[in-house]
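Homework help board

Subject: predicted structure for assignment chain

Our instructor gave us this sequence and asked us to write out the predicted structure in token form, then describe one feature. I got the tokens but I'm not sure how to describe them. Can anyone check?
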Amino acid sequence: MKILYIALGGKGGSDKALIDILSILTKDYDIEPLVICGRKDLIPELERIGVKSLFYDFEWALCPPNTTLKDKILYVPRRLKACLRRRRDVYALKTIVKEFQPYIIHTNIGVVNLGYLLGKKMRIPHIWHIREYQILDHDMHYIGGLKNFRRVLRLNKFNIGITKDLYRYFRMENPSVQIYDGVRSFRPNSIAMLQKPRNYFLFAGFIYQGKGLDELLFAYKEYCDRGGANNLFILGTFNEYNSFHQWVKQYIEKNNLDGVKLLGFRDDVDELMSHSVAVIVPSRFEAFGRVACEGMFNKTLVIGKDTGGTKEQFDNVDEYVGDPISLRYSTEHELVDRMFESENMSIKRRSEIIELSFRLVNSLYTNEISAAHVYEYYTYVLNYDH
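My token output:
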């Protein structure tokens, strides 16, 4: 089964999820993939799992910025230029599609409509994998607005929402489906939990305001002022020219937060998670809550903001256990309370929460389960009575 994928091609959650799915689909199912990447970062990862790819710098289906006076003056020309580029992209890739002859085109992100346009032009079924709220989590606005995007999804018919809440938010309906992302391959329950964590909390992710790092730093300052002694490890790439990155460093220095350790990009995230007092997910509106699930897979406590995908993962844990065990918060002060709660928790209670959370993620969010559902949907789409 030939599938043409369209991906951002970076190092974000959507691209990680695609690698996770393809690593199983190409090994266990009759899938022949070709991935068109909008950036080159993903290509080495695709090569590692034996997947063919090509780089093409396509235009995203977003409105241009409209905040400054300059933005307002250039808004119409920019929008017209982007529209012409999207048309160019379709014609530029028609030859590749004809040569590859895919059964299905699968777009791996919601902010790119290239796959949708190619599918319409060439009468190939198109699956749109919706992985973000767009406005709520990234302040990105699809061309024509939210109402128009919901309409386009209805016209597309075959869509995947990665959470129940995303499915509801975009008002998807049959034959669209909800499929959770895979986060890790299935792990045996015999994996041991570290009895005594080391003296640090952990944040992992892209360094920008949407991920809530500013709120976490405010909370950590209050935590230290109230006598908290654990460090805060921040994992993520820093850019000295980024204004928010500059603010983070200045805030740490100004408030003498010596316990904050900026560790940059790391390859040992799983190990660092497993040794932490807790993984903290302060994102303002996470679409899925991948880092929260990774923390649970790595058998540590997870503290997270009670919104979006993080809330849904906590709801699933609490429903599975039949008891509200998740460490969720809504305000900065509640986050501080959760930090103290996690560090003062007894080993017995800590073990109970970690083991129950692990069982849940190991039954819902494995790569094997996600890939099986995606393949099942491919089969459904191909046999759909049009």
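Reply (TA_rk): Your tokens look well-formed. For the description, you could write something like this. The chain has a mean pLDDT of 95. That's the kind of observation they're looking for.
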